[in-house]
Each structure stands twice: as structure tokens, then as C-alpha cells.
């Protein structure tokens, strides 16, 4: 797949474009010669950070807007050839304390975006950022795309609905859409201010700060972590492949226990420590146990597989925060 | 299971209580000696009809309210021992022309109800009316509960989310909830004014009016139809069984082709005719082909199985509309 040919000169919209994955995607698309428009609501604590695009700010357009705003979306989607739809509320615990906001962002706003495309840009191709969270606690490992969806929290439910709006609009209206079910993603530009958007950013910050990382439970839970550049590749491949239309794909990689992960992280940082603590009740109730993905479908269909080893990815990430930490701490 | 003992003197709330299934459930609960509160929004064309409870109006309480109203629900759920949660937008085609309203009714209002229970009545037991629509076009027949959920329209997506909010609130907060995935339900008190809430009511009306029923496609599509009294039984059994908490159950019965169904209906009515016509495009795009349920799980867990034959059920239904048709036409 010639990604340069696929994206050079193309008009591309990224929702959540100032966030972690969105901004990394923007960097890559700028390299590829795309005309990039970043839409972000800049809701506090959601991950949007203008520093994420500081080095490409003259090569992209930025529009601060909330994708819940129907009129704004009606305008912004016009003439775009690709939409990478990454805007979302991603905190599981926040979705339980405020289910309405999670519903607005992860369901209503997805309908707004899709309705805007139906009315004003039905030839666009959309890639939706879904999540392994919609599977809930796995019935078996590794989890493939035919695993039942039984989410354990409101965020998982609403992301499941958000994904299916895309598939239905693909099937009913022919608005080409693909959903990528992301597992844990890490790398430069991720939010490390607090621990509500996932554990890995928080662990990295704590290790760099020489603090004691708290591992819930016995630390044997398995996870698979994708480096953000690999995830960006998957978005580009899904956008460029017509055989991805209407499909859902797991991303993933090899599994590692959280304890092994923390050992590796502490070694790379040369600082930090860890301790095992019991699960806090509000976390335990929505915990999913071990998880890792079967990603053979995306490999067979799009030729994607992760390229960056965990050690390599963590080293790059730690180096980024050593250099730019003050913009994220 | 002694249903009389389970419900006598108990406080019971039915959302969508003036609608088809809700009002039939109300009749049964009044017989069983329950204290019944019916909440209904009376949104036009949704199925609410005060005549549905004309013969029990002095034995039930009626509160016209929309379950989207958070403050109202906060008040109405208090002290209830059972909630039969049947309020919903059920038109597939309406969900595609107005996805926002479907989202408000089938998602936001379910969160409102569950949040009201979490805050003000966490010991209640809730039975949610889900639908076979969430399976989409079957991968295999009969469809059991481990069949993947891949809805074909916005209504199916939002009902899927609505069901899962209940399961998550059961699992996370211990608010006991069961979801019944209904297949086509028919019987007295169903809406027959228009064809947007399902085909069977419309077919009955047309046969009684001596009109020509239009069957889409070749008429060989299979469906399973439950008589409403059987469905009411399932709601009561699910409410009374603790082993139903957190579970989803298919209802169902034997399959019949739509053409055979129409033949039987015309025979029973002694009037009407039918013709095969091509699918209208907006229907074809969300059609699911043949469907019938595997209901062995609910039979094994709750001892439920349908008791009323299709012929018997249709005869009772036709007799009802011959007598009361003017209140429904």
C-alpha cells in the first residue's frame, strides 16, 4: 500500500485532533502531504494539548469545536476525503459517575458526525476509534472480532453504540466506515496528568518522577500495548483500503503482565518502584481481568502488524517525556 | 412459581404502561393483586391508548410522564418493588429518519431510570423489554443468546445499549435487572393505526378491513410470533426469579413464513387478501431476512415456554378487534 499516494494532497479531518492519537496521526499525515484539519473540543482533562502540534502548527488547520455541535459539524465535514474520528470520552470511571456526558460525547456526537456526512459529504471515508473495552471481561483469550460484546461499564456500552452507528451508516447509506478496536495505546503526546484515561501514561509519569507505582491486584493481569506509531499506521491502512469498508478490526500485540511491564518501565527509566495494592472497589467493579487481542483479521485484510517492540516503544516514550515533560506534567 | 404470592400487594411500576404489552401486563398484575402504577408519555403514534386500561382504570394509578424527565423519574421510582421497563421508541424506520429522538428515548431515558433507581431505590428489580432486532440479520437459525449482536438500524443499536445499561447497573451496583429479548409480539391492545411499529398489527387490521396485504419480497421470510399473554408471563417469571438477575433471555416460538401467516390470518378473519411486492428501498436496507429464536435458555432457567398457539392467539386477537376496533382504527 502506497500511503504517500493515498494521502498526498488529500483533505483530511481528525476529530480529537489535539489529543494523543489524533496529534500523532496529524504528524504522519503532514509528512505524507495531506491537508489536515484538526477539530478538538479542548475539554479539560480529555487529552487535548496544543503542544501536541507545536512543531506542525503552521502545516495544519485547527478548529476548536465540540462534535456535539450539529451545525458546526455540518460545516466542518464538507469536502473532506477522510475523517479520522477519534473524539471521545475515554474514562471508564467518569462514565459511571456521569453517564449522561459520556452518552452525549460517545453516542449523540457520533450521530451528529454521521448525519452531517450523510447530508453534506456522503462520499467521505471514516475511520472510527473503537476500543477493546466493548468486549468487557474476555470469555477467552486472545479475543477476536467474533467474541461477544458485553461491556462492563457505561463507557464500553456507549463506545459499542458509537461503533455500530458507523457500521449501520456504512451498510444503509454507503458512507464508507471502518472501526478499529484499539487495545492500550501508549507513546509520545499521551496525557499523563492523571490516571483516569488509562494506566500506562500514569505509570510512565510515576516512574519518571521516581514514585511508587500502585499495581491493583496481584499484577499478573495480562495486557497488550500498541505503540502509537503502529496505531497510526492502522488508521492509515484502514482509510486507504476499500476492503476495510463496513469492517471492524482488532489491533493488538503480544501480551505482557502488568508486573513485567512495570519492571521493564522502571528499568528503562532508571527510577520508580512499585507495590501491589488491593483493587479500589470502584475499579474492581468494572475491571476486565486479563485481555489481549487476536489481530489476525487486520493482518490478513490490511497487512498490518505491530512493528515497534515494547522496549523500543517505551524507550522512545520515556525520551519524549524527559525532553518535553513540563508540557504534560 | 407462585405468581400470586410473588406479586400480591406489591408495588409495581410499568413504563410504557398504556401501550400494548404494558397494558396487558397491567391487567395481569391487577388480577394478581399488585398495586400498579402506569407511567406513559402518550407520545402520538407510539402505542399508548387510554382505552387499553378502560376496564381496570379504577384499579391502577396512571401518571402521564416521559421517562426522559429525570426529576419525574427520581420521584416515581421510589418505593416500587418491581419496574417493568417497556417504554421505548420501537419504529425502525423512524430511528433512521430521526436518530436523535430514538437516542433520547432508548438510551438517555434508560440511564435516567437506572440513575433514579441507583439514587432512590437500589433494591428494586427491573425487567427490561429488549428486542431480537439487536441481533440484526441472523448468522444462523434459531438465534440463541450467544449470537453476536450486529444490529441493522439505529433503533437496534440504541436498544442494545439500553439493554446493556441494565446489565451493567445490575453487575456494578447490584440493581437487579433482567432483559427479555422479545421477538414479534401480537395480541389485543396492540397499535394497528399504522405499519411503523411492526407488520403483524397492520396485517390484522388490513385483513379485518378486507384489504389487500402487501408482503415484501417472496413471502418466505420466517418469523416467530409470541402471543402477548405468553410475553406477559415471561415478564412476571423474570421478575419473580432471582436467578434471572443480570441475565438476558430470548423469547420465541415456532417459526412460520409470512405467507403462511397471512393465509392463516385471512382464513380466521374470513376477509382480506394478499399480494407480493418488492421491498421498498428504505425497508430493504434494514431488513433482517428470516428470524426465529432459540428460547431454551429461558425455558431452562425460568420454566417459560409459549402456551398459546398461533391460531388460538390470532383468533383471540381478531375477536378483540372485532369488538373494540373503533378504539384502535
Strand order of the largest sheet of chain A: 3-2-1-4-5-6-10
Indicate the CATH architecture of the domain at 3-187 and 226-252 and 293-307 in chain A: 3-Layer(aba) Sandwich
What oligomeric assembly is this protein in? homodimer
Give the overall form of chain A.
globular
Q: Strand-and-helix sequence of chain A, N→C?
A: HEHEEHEHHEHEEHEEHEEHEHHH
Can you give the helix content of chain A as a percent range? 40-55%
At the first level of CATH, the class of the domain at 3-187 and 226-252 and 293-307 in chain A is: Alpha Beta
Number of strands of chain A: 12
Number of helices of chain A: 12
Distance between the termini of chain A: 38 Å
The computed structural class of chain A is alpha/beta
Average pLDDT, all residues of chain A: 94
Low-confidence stretches of chain A: none
Q: How is the main sheet of chain A built?
A: 7 strands, parallel
- The CATH H-level superfamily of the domain at 3-187 and 226-252 and 293-307 in chain A is NAD(P)-binding Rossmann-like Domain
The whole-angstrom Rg of chain A is 19 Å
Largest interface: A-B, 29 and 28 residues
In short:
Chain A has about 325 residues and is of the alpha/beta class. The first copy, chain A, has a domain at about 5-185 and about 225-250 and about 295-305: Rossmann fold, CATH 3.40.50.720.
Amino acid at each position: 500500500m502506497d500511503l504517500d499516494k493515498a494521502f498526498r494532497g488529500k483533505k483530511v479531518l481528525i476529530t480529537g485532533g489535539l489529543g494523543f492519537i489524533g496529534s500523532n496521526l496529524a504528524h504522519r499525515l503532514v509528512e505524507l502531504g495531506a491537508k489536515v484539519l484538526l477539530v478538538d473540543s479542548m475539554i479539560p482533562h480529555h487529552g487535548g494539548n496544543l503542544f501536541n502540534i507545536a512543531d506542525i502548527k503552521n502545516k495544519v488547520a485547527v478548529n476548536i469545536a465540540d462534535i456535539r455541535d450539529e451545525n458546526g459539524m455540518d460545516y466542518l465535514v464538507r469536502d473532506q476525503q477522510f475523517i479520522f474520528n477519534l473524539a471521545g470520552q475515554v474514562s471508564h470511571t467518569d462514565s459511571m459517575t456521569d453517564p449522561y456526558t459520556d452518552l452525549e460525547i460517545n453516542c449523540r456526537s457520533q450521530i451528529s458526525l454521521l448525519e452531517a456526512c450523510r447530508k453534506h459529504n456522503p462520499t467521505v471515508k471514516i475511520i472510527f476509534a473503537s476500543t477493546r473495552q466493548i468486549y468487557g471481561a474476555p470469555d477467552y483469550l486472545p479475543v477476536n472480532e467474533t467474541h461477544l460484546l458485553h461491556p462492563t461499564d457505561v463507557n464500553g456500552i456507549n463506545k459499542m453504540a458509537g461503533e455500530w452507528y458507523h457500521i449501520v451508516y456504512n451498510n444503509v447509506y454507503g458512507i464508507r466506515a471502518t472501526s478499529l478496536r484499539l487495545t492500550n495505546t501508549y507513546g509520545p503526546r499521551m496525557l499523563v496528568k492523571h490516571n483516569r484515561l488509562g494506566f500506562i501514561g500514569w505509570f510512565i509519569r510515576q516512574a519518571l518522577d521516581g514514585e511508587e507505582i500502585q499495581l491493583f491486584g496481584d499484577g499478573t493481569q495480562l495486557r497488550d500495548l500498541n505503540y502509537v506509531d503502529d496505531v497510526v499506521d492502522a488508521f492509515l491502512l484502514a482509510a486507504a483500503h476499500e476492503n476495510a469498508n463496513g469492517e471492524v478490526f482488532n489491533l493488538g500485540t503480544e501480551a505482557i503482565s502488568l508486573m513485567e511491564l512495570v519492571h521493564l518501565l522502571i528499568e528503562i527509566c532508571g527510577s520508580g518502584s512499585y507495590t501491589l495494592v488491593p483493587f479500589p472497589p470502584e475499579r474492581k467493579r468494572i475491571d476486565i481481568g486479563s485481555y489481549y487481542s487476536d489481530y489476525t483479521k487486520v493482518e490478513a485484510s490490511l497487512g498490518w502488524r505491530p512493528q515497534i517492540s515494547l522496549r523500543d516503544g517505551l524507550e522512545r516514550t520515556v525520551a519524549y517525556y524527559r525532553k518535553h515533560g513540563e508540557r504534560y506534567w
